[in-house]
């Protein structure tokens, strides 16, 4: 969603590289481009105006901090501004307030409200809660059946309201059943309308008075842009929303609604829907989203997603095979499956530092389909062929192509990519080979990615920790390091205070030319 905005802002930062300080002159053009990028992303005009003024006040005339050039300095200031714009600190659900904990889900028709109720229930069930879904939309045909289908798909009970047609009676009986069955969370799917009207609001106010909910979440469709912001404002004024859940954040909308909604309505963005699958749902972290927009990645969310969705034992076994250069086509297929479990490929790349330029050059949909093709090809192989790709003769390839419904050329393409992957792994496991690996990426036009992922053969442990302390920390956390520690270990993490920034490329070229000239004179 934020790709276009992210690219434009990052290009603005690059133009400031090599400047001594942030001045009126070099800031004017940069701020104008950031303003234009935000407006083109459909961010509310008043929000853009306030944001630019705040950035200007903080940035203008500041001396560059030690180790930061003006581009980096501006990134730091804009990042802080975006975090505030997106709502500040993330807010978790506090379940200590009442039992059962009541969550009302409200919104207009067509925003994905019922599906979102299911995703929220699934998210809370994985956190150890016992949710009960309550269908209160007695007006829309098949609304109750839809929620029952969603509940069955995630193994979460749905209150049976078949013979009831009054929302107040439904929630009254649902509360009694929740207490009886010891369900600790009640998620109420309320009725929606095609537009805001008094009848809708009156019914929601009555439900609020009856339930006394701890949370009232408004479901907003990111694809509707500023209309979603306007609707959220109207619902907030009538019901005092505790938060907003934004759906379709994985779509091709410009993202202005997500950037405007907290500032305009006063209701924080609490959760986001990132796809059609029930697992494509997560808490909203303003600081992490700001990092994605500025091309800094979101390593914490990536680590959390890996820990939640990937089989850790299988991942460790695959990693061991990679290090021992014993990676087979069978392992390649397992790796593709692991990636598929983690969600949309484009979204994953957005979480990795330095992947912005590579993402621009890729057709994400095409790459995702290619993964499916590769798995179909490997599934058509015999166990022996999967373990030893060297025995794949033309005759065998023809048989595999027929079995998988693909072309022999596609099999050759897959094998080529598999061999390139093995070659990269081989380079990574050999001392002194990282420089060569960086060159390979740079020649492919992926220099930013290489710079972040392979900055050198050594890395510093976080906060002066020793290897032994790191192992002890992992043992205390059930064999896993905390996400914030992993982020510090990741290449491209923030450098320690006092670190000197590298000299501009232009200066290095001049020095190289002087040395060359000196050798000629001698």
Textual characterization of the structure:
By secondary structure, the chain is α/β, with parallel strands linked by helices. The chain has three domains: 5-85, Four Helix Bundle (Hemerythrin (Met), subunit A), CATH 1.20.120.140; 95-296, 3-Layer(aba) Sandwich (Rossmann fold), CATH 3.40.50.300; 312-521, Orthogonal Bundle (434 Repressor (Amino-terminal Domain)). It has 25 helices and seven strands. Strands 2-3-1-4-5-6-7 form a seven-stranded mixed sheet, sandwiched between helices. Helix 1 (3-14) packs antiparallel against helix 2 and helix 9 packs parallel to helix 10 (256-265). It is globular. The protein starts with a helix and ends with a helix.
Brief characterization of the structure:
By secondary structure, the chain is of the alpha/beta class. Helices cover 57% and strands 7% of the residues.
CATH class of the largest domain: Mainly Alpha
Strand order of the largest sheet: 2-3-1-4-5-6-7
Radius of gyration, taken over Cα atoms and rounded to an integer in Å: 27 Å
Q: Considering the protein shown, what is the CATH homologous superfamily of the largest domain? A: Signal recognition particle, SRP54 subunit, M-domain
Count of discrete structural domains:
3
Shape: globular
Determine the structural class based on helices, strands and strand pairing: alpha/beta
Q: Give the integer mean of the pLDDT values.
A: 75
Main sheet attributes: strand count, strand direction, barrel closure: 7 strands, mixed
CATH topology of the largest domain, what is it called? 434 Repressor (Amino-terminal Domain)
Q: Spans with pLDDT under 50 lasting ≥5 residues?
A: 443-447, 452-459, 490-503
Estimate percent helicity.
55-70%
């Amino acid at each position: 969603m934020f790709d276009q905005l992210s690219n434009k802002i990052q290009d603005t930062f690059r133009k400031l590289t090599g400047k001594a300080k942030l001045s009126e002159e070099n800031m004017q053009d940069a701020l104008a481009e950031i303003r234009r990028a935000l407006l083109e992303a459909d961010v509310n005009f008043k929000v853009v105006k306030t944001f630019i003024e705040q950035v200007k006040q903080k940035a203008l005339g500041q001396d560059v901090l030690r180790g930061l050039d003006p581009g980096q300095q501006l990134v730091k200031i804009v990042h802080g501004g975006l975090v505030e714009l997106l709502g500040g600190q993330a807010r978790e659900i506090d379940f200590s307030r009442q039992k059962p904990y009541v969550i009302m889900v409200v919104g207009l028709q067509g925003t994905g409200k019922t599906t979102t109720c299911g995703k929220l229930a699934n998210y809370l069930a994985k956190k150890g809660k016992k949710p009960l879904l309550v269908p209160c939309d007695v007006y829309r045909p098949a609304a109750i059946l839809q929620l029952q289908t969603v509940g069955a798909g995630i193994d979460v009970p749905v209150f049976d309201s078949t013979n009831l047609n009054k929302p107040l009676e439904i929630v009254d009986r649902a509360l009694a059943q929740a207490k009886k069955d010891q369900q600790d969370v009640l998620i109420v799917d309320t009725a929606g309308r095609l537009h805001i009207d008094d009848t809708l609001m009156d019914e929601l106010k009555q439900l609020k008075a009856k339930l006394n909910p701890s949370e009232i979440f408004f479901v907003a469709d990111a694809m509707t842009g500023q209309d979603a912001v306007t609707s959220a404002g109207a619902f907030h004024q009538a019901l005092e929303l505790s938060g907003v859940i934004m759906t379709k954040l994985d779509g091709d909308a410009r993202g202005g609604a997500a950037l405007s909604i907290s500032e305009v309505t006063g209701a924080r963005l609490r959760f986001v829907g990132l796809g059609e699958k029930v697992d494509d749902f997560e808490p909203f972290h303003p600081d992490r989203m700001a990092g994605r927009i500025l091309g800094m990645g979101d390593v914490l969310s990536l680590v959390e997603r890996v820990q939640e969705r990937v089989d850790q034992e299988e991942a460790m076994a695959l990693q061991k095979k990679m290090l021992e250069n014993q990676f087979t086509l069978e392992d390649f297929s397992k790796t593709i499956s692991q990636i598929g479990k983690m969600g949309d490929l484009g979204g994953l790349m957005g979480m990795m530092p330095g992947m912005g330029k590579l993402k621009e050059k890729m057709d994400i949909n095409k790459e995702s389909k290619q993964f499916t093709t590769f798995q179909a090809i490997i599934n058509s192989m015999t166990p022996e062929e999967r373990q030893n790709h060297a025995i794949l003769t033309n005759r065998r390839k023809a048989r595999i192509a027929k079995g998988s419904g693909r072309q022999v050329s596609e099999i050759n393409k897959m094998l080529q990519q598999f061999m390139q992957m093995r070659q990269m792994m081989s380079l990574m496991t050999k001392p002194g080979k990282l420089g060569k690996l960086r060159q390979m990426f740079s020649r492919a036009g992926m220099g930013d990615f290489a710079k972040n992922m392979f900055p050198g053969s050594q890395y510093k442990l976080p906060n002066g920790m020793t290897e032994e302390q790191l192992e002890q920390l992992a043992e205390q956390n059930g064999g896993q390091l905390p996400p914030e520690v992993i982020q510090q270990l990741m290449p491209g993490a923030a450098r320690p205070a006092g670190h000197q920034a590298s000299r501009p490329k232009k200066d290095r070229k001049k020095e190289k030319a002087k040395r060359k000239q000196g050798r000629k004179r001698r």
